Amino acid sequence: MLTNEEIRKLVDVETGDVARKIFVDPDVYQQELARIFGRCWLYVGHESQFKNNGDFITTYMGEDPVIVIRDGAGKINVLLNSCRHRGMKVCRKDEGNARSFVCSYHGWSFSNSGELLAVPREEVAYCNGIDKGDLGLLRPAQVDTLHGMIFANWDPDAPSLNEYLGDMKFYLDLMADRMEGGIELIGGVHKWIIDGNWKLAADNFVGDMYHVPVTHGSAVGIGIRKPWGDDGYQISPGNGHGFGGEFGGLAEGEGVATPYTPFIKKVRENLEKDKGDYVSKIVPIGHGTVFPNFSFLDTMRFRTFRVWHPKGPNKMEIQAWCVVDKALPDELKAAVRQQYIFTFGPSGVFEQEDGENWSQCTAAAAGWRGRQDNFNYSMGLGREREASEVLGHDLPGKIGGMWSEINQRAMYRRWRDLMAAESWSDLA
Amino acid sequence: MLTNEEIRKLVDVETGDVARKIFVDPDVYQQELARIFGRCWLYVGHESQFKNNGDFITTYMGEDPVIVIRDGAGKINVLLNSCRHRGMKVCRKDEGNARSFVCSYHGWSFSNSGELLAVPREEVAYCNGIDKGDLGLLRPAQVDTLHGMIFANWDPDAPSLNEYLGDMKFYLDLMADRMEGGIELIGGVHKWIIDGNWKLAADNFVGDMYHVPVTHGSAVGIGIRKPWGDDGYQISPGNGHGFGGEFGGLAEGEGVATPYTPFIKKVRENLEKDKGDYVSKIVPIGHGTVFPNFSFLDTMRFRTFRVWHPKGPNKMEIQAWCVVDKALPDELKAAVRQQYIFTFGPSGVFEQEDGENWSQCTAAAAGWRGRQDNFNYSMGLGREREASEVLGHDLPGKIGGMWSEINQRAMYRRWRDLMAAESWSDLA
Amino acid sequence: MLTNEEIRKLVDVETGDVARKIFVDPDVYQQELARIFGRCWLYVGHESQFKNNGDFITTYMGEDPVIVIRDGAGKINVLLNSCRHRGMKVCRKDEGNARSFVCSYHGWSFSNSGELLAVPREEVAYCNGIDKGDLGLLRPAQVDTLHGMIFANWDPDAPSLNEYLGDMKFYLDLMADRMEGGIELIGGVHKWIIDGNWKLAADNFVGDMYHVPVTHGSAVGIGIRKPWGDDGYQISPGNGHGFGGEFGGLAEGEGVATPYTPFIKKVRENLEKDKGDYVSKIVPIGHGTVFPNFSFLDTMRFRTFRVWHPKGPNKMEIQAWCVVDKALPDELKAAVRQQYIFTFGPSGVFEQEDGENWSQCTAAAAGWRGRQDNFNYSMGLGREREASEVLGHDLPGKIGGMWSEINQRAMYRRWRDLMAAESWSDLA
Amino acid sequence: MEYAFVRGIEQFLYREARLLDEGKFQEWLDLFTDDVRYWMPMKTTRDATSSAETTDKELAFFDDRKPTLSLRVKRLTTGMAFAEDPPSRTRRIISNIEIDALSDKEVEVYSNFLVYRTRLESVEDTYVGHRKDVLKEVDGSWKIAQRKMIIEQNVLASNNLSVFF
Amino acid sequence: MEYAFVRGIEQFLYREARLLDEGKFQEWLDLFTDDVRYWMPMKTTRDATSSAETTDKELAFFDDRKPTLSLRVKRLTTGMAFAEDPPSRTRRIISNIEIDALSDKEVEVYSNFLVYRTRLESVEDTYVGHRKDVLKEVDGSWKIAQRKMIIEQNVLASNNLSVFF
Amino acid sequence: MEYAFVRGIEQFLYREARLLDEGKFQEWLDLFTDDVRYWMPMKTTRDATSSAETTDKELAFFDDRKPTLSLRVKRLTTGMAFAEDPPSRTRRIISNIEIDALSDKEVEVYSNFLVYRTRLESVEDTYVGHRKDVLKEVDGSWKIAQRKMIIEQNVLASNNLSVFF
Lengths: 428, 428, 428, 165, 165, 165
Ligand code: FES
Ligand code: FES
Ligand code: FES
Ligand SMILES: [Fe+3]
Ligand SMILES: [Fe+3]
Ligand SMILES: [Fe+3]
Known about the structure:
The complex is a heterohexamer, with 3 copies of chain A (428 residues) and 3 copies of chain D (165 residues). Chain A has 428 residues and is of the alpha+beta class. Chain A contains 15 helices and 23 strands. In chain A, strands 13, 14, 15, 16, 17, 18, 19, 20, 22 and 23 form a 10-stranded antiparallel beta sheet that branches. In chain A, strand 15 (232-238) and strand 16 (241-246) form a beta hairpin. By secondary structure, chain D is α+β, with helices and mostly antiparallel strands. In chain D, 21% of the residues lie in helices and 42% in strands. Chain D is globular. The two termini of chain D are 27 Å apart. Classes of the chains: A alpha+beta (428), D alpha+beta (165). At the C-F interface, strand 14, helix 8, strand 20, helix 11 and helix 12 of C face strand 2 and helix 3 of F. The complex binds FE2/S2 (inorganic) cluster (FES) (3 copies) and fe (iii) ion (3 copies).
């Protein structure tokens, strides 16, 4: 464990200097598993994935494998995917439907709400009395949802999801609650491995518009988007969360256009009537991260959710989905799906370059000399304003220009505070 | 090094709780290499593998590569397979016959009893006088055998093999000394790698009949054995060793039967006359482990020896042999061989599932949340009796039912005591 | 960090015992990255690779990736290949020509002398004023050359290259300054990975003639060299450097002869007239290492430079070049090239065996028992003399016989002193 | 099936693979019909007895028609496709070719592939899988009218999919 | 050798591989004669100059006759063969096919294989080796009458061998 | 191209591969003409758009003529070639064979290879690449008159190159 003092030296929010060490050091990483992933609200799935009782998916919270399942009573459960007897994964599938899970090692069976239902030959084997009530699958201390997005938290002392999201909730509403019926995920998930630290991806999505014209400059070259102007924003609503984009919506362009763009504009007009003129400026709400590792893109062409699962200091597993409004017409869903696959995911003409960059950043920062240096997050220092000053309407949070690292600074401040704190109460 | 106190917290023999941490933690693992594998008697081979002077095999003691060789005088030597000059492996073969080993780096040569025979150009290179007597291959402090099974121990202060085995010896006699001429290994060794902690395998063989009807349930499905009853035992003769099985012998069944079963029954009848009626109950003696990592199966269909070589917290190399009585008729040896290959080894219709389970257990226990939990070894707690009460004849050791984790508790108690002790004398 | 005291125990120069631990221990390795590779002069390239302004190669200093480049003013720069913004490798090529490097992540661009030239949209993104002068690529504190060989050093307090080389310089002159115009590298570099600790290779080249007749004994078998006599030397000019060979030049032989041998003899005759009769004895100067990881072979058939880049305790990347006198006739260059490829590099009939040996040495030394032992470097202990006594002419340094580990002892003494010292001044 | 016919198809696939391995992407693109679908669904672990593939309403690793496939190729010439600049080194082992002739001018071809790619110094990926192509004869030459590909992985073990299959 | 004859054998091996890759184990089993020996000895490091294989008195990775081979296939349908439930994803590269005709109705076939398998999320194994088969024509179709296989490993680098070769 | 002609060349390459895999090095050597060049340049990362190979004035992984190639083979019999004693286990997948007939008696042959080798207990290397051979008919048999090979790696991921390609 690095001490409070050691941690505090790693992030200087006044200058925007963040020690490279935090992206490569194994001790820092172990501490993250405990103090970040062991305490924060982590995205584990979306309710639209659970249409029927018994529907489940498997995913991760930090490095811990979990099952997310709708039980017989229709309730969503998050369960550690590890038998209480000898730890075996009780479910070895990506998704499916199950009334119960029978462990393949000794046959203990667990209900789809996690209770230990039966152990084989219980009477003769455990006549001393096994306390089945105490041996259900482990589960996070808290589970909650927002617009169908399911979050879970191992820490009973963590603030509620609502409090944790804070002012970010206001903006997530704009992303996930635009049409009657809300959102749903298109089937299938892109899963792949990048040889890079998870924070590189989280920080990229929280506030890094600045990489887009370079990393993704080939998009202009092939005519699927126009060159980038300077007219956008980064909003930091607190608690390490953040989002940003071009005013008017990310990713306008000509090539390979789909009817989704005019459609979303219509949707936005309706929303604007309800909420005010800021809507047309910041909806769709662009790129963003809910601290620590849930990110999204919400553009004129598609929406995506993604989680950056940590797999060691130098490795992450990306899980990424395409998100649509449930009420979107089928042919538009199909168009969005195709657009998404073409531009994002491992083969996406945008996303290919992120993999190249994040893996090489991590490699180049790992040497003895390199890791003594800092990464530089000084962009936009001293030019942060209240969002309401710029956009009116009492909008919450701080705002910076589109080319600003305000959100990354807020993210690493939060990271530092959590890493240094012994408990949530210590943090406050 | 974890302290005595830290180690003691990891194993609670009163409740059967064993910390998952011990199956995944790198520091625990390093300590095991020193305090378990550096001190315990380790199986390194069987005398039947060394028919002629010079015959050798290579294997491991813990992670250390060793040569086991019968020297020119017919004596079995165990030698660290690493040149005293610059550490090169002096032997890079699995087995063979050698009068000496010439190191491929600088040509130092060692006799088949480990002495440094010659160094090239000794006079001109080492005229200052190299002490060849001091530079023979390193060797364990103690080597001893039981029924041809060769064990070695690095620690000069360790108890003798006899004392170390304690009451387990009584039962090993029943396994290895049933026919005139004793046992021998069928040629060839199955070697493979499992992504799992070595203790999972050792604990599985020491006392885990309970997994058999589930993990290996497909055997019933294909008719090669009948469903399991409850009529069996687990015997814990002390010092962490253990064995168990069905009364009457493991693995009765119909499908793919061989004449070995009636044959072994005959052998057993003779033995019974000598020793008493308990023989027909517990011979063949089923599954078992000699602490720490030598295990066996002794069934109505075959016998196997295996060693679970540690290769890191998450990895083991299995070496497994098929064992027969030397006096077994050739056609029965052939039948046993085929039966064994069909059911055990990496492609065995039984053993395939063990690889799946152990690797996934280790993976699922490795997360931050998972590794804070315990594995549960409470089965049969409080119902342990003296073996002699159940089987008569002053049989040594404690006994539990077939579905009992008595042996695992004894194994982890021993593990804990050795891990916490600074020396063997400290242990007593 | 191992303490001074712990380090000192690892190397005993009186007996030639060097703890195996230093070849396999991860903590020792981390300390090496800081105290050896972070402080010593490291070879990074040769001026002949940079014919035009803008010519560059990429290589490593320790584990840190660096660019070596001739800038617009013709000066050689060594630059950490990691963007100061978010660490991305700014150059992902082996070699080429560049006026500047544009980072593929956010487009910061750096001149070929390392200055930060421009950041995209600087005015709007960084109107707070980014200090571009402070954000150029990081560079070693010192860079210097000898006969075109470029060395760099991260430590501003390190002695000058001249002082660091000490008396080794006298001998390097004999290797690299024999013909008008000096030396040059043949194009292309052999790069490969060996599963062995870097010191095994450095120590092999610094003084290990003794392995040659055994490891490379097949060369006699195929008639490309005659059996080895005893007539040679090892010279230790101090500071951990060393070299040695057969008197009259390494690698005489019959098979696959090239006209290079008679040619070099002529060159040597001329040199001898200038310098004295020792020249025909020790030129070409054989095998050698400039501490820590730059080695060479200078034989009657070819010359090679190589660097043993550390990649973890058990892994090194070899980079190896073939070196010729610039003035060598083209057909002789071609002959040397072919001879070199046939005998050295990954497929070389000599070098193949080194890979086998070094990887298996490292593997065999890594076990718990093995790593408690020492490697033995006692050869020639007590028979070290002044080089001038043997060769006259006030030749600097100590000398041992061809079969002597004098140079390795000096190398590990230097290693120990540097590992234990907090700073260069501490060392003196 | 006639030898010349079979060999024509096999050689077509080898030549196609070589165009990719040699970086001749435009020539490669010309081997596809204008209405081609270039589709790589993903293998999921959903069933006890089979490895389900994602359907065409679900996500895929690729799902291109000629226009987007052309853009992928064009992208490589923009000077900003950093994932392939500098380019990966690739080599394609194409094997187990099976042909079903649907007509004289249309065949369905199964093949297995191992695509090996390394890039920069030591990034290394091996993609193993299979393809089902429909080839059509157009003006005397074969063209690929449909290509369905599968990589036999669940979690893709690569930084990206910047090469073609 | 006649083209049709050679092609028939090659296609037979490809089809066989595909049956395995597609999980059609019963159909695969039907390709073997009733007296088949399905044998995979192990490579050991015993000699200075060759890689000895274990003899048929020694252990092997497989040594099945039709009855046990059938049980292996049946096992996959028991619902308790967890090593293959959920199933592995596999793909077989069969190459370097060489044929020795022993008669019109009996051939000896050499082939090399690369069997790629992944399972669950990221378990990955690549088995490379070679086979020597004896094929016999039975009722107008080829059947495998003997199969000897070698994986070119010493310590098998897998959790198990739950797939066929 | 005639079937028998093509098959002759394919079988020649398979037999050649098998000679190596079976350790028959002298027989393998006899397949080369006396003036053969056996050359394996290296792939470098020098350009933005192609993977340059080292030229023949630069270093290579192999650059042998018959005399040195013969010495490499002879070396294996000296009893001191420890890199191959005990010998590696190898298996060669040869695929994507393309033939350009330069004349009746001379052909240029492209092929891709995957050479799998393990040695001792668990050392494992997979070399993937391609070859361009010139074969000449000499006394009724094909001989290799030129061989150019490429391994698709930049930093070679092996302890050495002690096997042939
Ligand atoms: S591990 Fe699940 S029942 Fe034993
Ligand atoms: S390492 Fe064995 S002789 Fe030097
Ligand atoms: S990392 Fe280089 S510009 Fe951002
Ligand atoms: Fe991006
Ligand atoms: Fe089992
Ligand atoms: Fe050497």
